[in-house]
Amino acid sequence: MADSIxxxxxxxxxxxxxxxxxxxxxxxxxxxxxxxxxxxxxxxxDSRITFTKSxxxxxxxxxxxxxxxxxxxxxxxxxxTKEPRILNPNxxxxxxxxxxxxxxxxxDIIFNQIYNKAGSxxxxxxxxxxxxxxxASDPLDDITKAWE
Length: 148
What we know:
By secondary structure, the protein is mainly alpha-helical. 54% of the residues lie in helices and 3% in strands. The chain has a two-stranded antiparallel sheet. The termini are far apart.
């Protein structure tokens, strides 16, 4: 059974720069925070990209213990599959696969719209978040409409 989330190899340097930057451009406090943001972003844009190679050590699921960490990941898996069974511990591997693919899709967006642009990464992140505002809907509506 999977007990961690892998980070795609092609984003190794981006993770280190955006999470551990020594040049005062750190955007995310932890890898976990960046993974959560990427998962939500990938899901929002319906960007699910498979990958096989990971470079950094995977982030253990036990690190996702904030007030909403696991709930967000579970909601993404539920919306994707429209099957409550995905929350069953026997389905953990499938849930992790779905999440890793949405994370990879979100990382692709972060790479192109934040990391790979000249200027302040923090400003690019704010611009990306603001650009989502017009498209936003109530998250509860998204979850409940998934079964319509």
